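2024-03-11 09:14:02 DEBUG pipeline.ingest accepted 1 chain
2024-03-11 09:14:02 DEBUG pipeline.ingest length=258
2024-03-11 09:14:03 DEBUG pipeline.predict start
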Amino acid sequence: MNAGFPGRQQLADFEPARPPRLYVFSGAGLSAESGISTFRTGDGIWTRASIDEVCNYITWRRHRPAVFRFYNERIAESADAQPNAAHRLLAQWQQRWGERRVHLITQNIDDMLEQAGARAVMHLHGDMISLLCTDCDLRFPKATRALDPEAACPECGQVASVKPGVVFFNEAAPEYANLYRLQREMTDDDVFVAIGTAFEVISPERLLPAERCWRHERNFLVDPAPRCQDFFGTVEASTATVGLQRLSTTVERLMDAD
């Protein structure tokens, strides 16, 4: 018998409780107040551009000049954009509690969170500050502000296989594996905030553990036209800057709780 040795459950009882973590899931609404166009809502970009031509992994090589031209236009449009108050508050929270406790997860391809001072951002759909070689899967930073269609992969030397670092439709999104890992790690004490998303690409069920999928008191939603409200204990029907500021005292109290 091993009567003198604690079992697994007893050992678990001795483990100190970890402090709550903050998970922030953001969509285009987070950057809309910085003047960056949305892709889906209102007169979003996809109402004016062909997805099959500029954002389809199956066909992109046939339209390579148009692909680079399209994303360079997006870069030019956002040249004067600056992080807004919501970006800055999220970056401050990550600086305050650290990257292990504050997970910033975004569908956005801009770098407003990084410009605001965030040190770690999970870009689920890639970004416009890198290039990807589809032959050897190397992601590397762009050398100039614009995406250079003549840039060669530093690993294999290919040019024609290099695309913008944005994840296209029908393309694998590697960060989704990390997203689901975070979902599995989320506990009842953690704080979840969704900002500026219509949940058309990723639903709340794919973000939250099953036990947190019905009006959980630590689930918060900020959006001017909120959807999937039944998942959230608190809904702020307002812009990212206004709604996040209204929630700041509550979030900080929960995160600082002993």
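2024-03-11 09:14:41 DEBUG pipeline.report The domain at 19-36+83-125+172-258 is CATH 3.40.50.1220 (Rossmann fold).
2024-03-11 09:14:41 DEBUG pipeline.predict end
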